[in-house]
Design goal:
Layout: H1 2-9, H2 15-33, H3 37-69
């Protein structure tokens, strides 16, 4: 019961990174539509870095969650 309540109150570790990534995706689409391909490429590189960071955060939180339950 307490674990359930803690899960509700605790925020997902990668939520902030995911929001920034999603915002950049929208910006990238607009740049691509407007023909600003250099800016589009820069944003896509930033998105790739954010995705890698997101994966790291998720993996770290998964490991720490497993250690706590053991």
């Amino acid at each position: 019961m307490i674990k359930f309540i803690m899960r509700l109150l605790k925020t997902e570790p990668g939520a902030k990174i995911r929001k920034v990534r999603d915002r950049k995706y929208k910006e990238a689409v607009q740049l691509q539509r407007n023909g600003k391909l250099r800016e589009y490429a820069e944003i896509m590189k930033e998105i790739e870095e954010l995705e890698n960071k997101y994966i790291e955060v998720i993996n770290e939180s998964g490991r720490s969650g497993q250690e706590q339950s053991d």
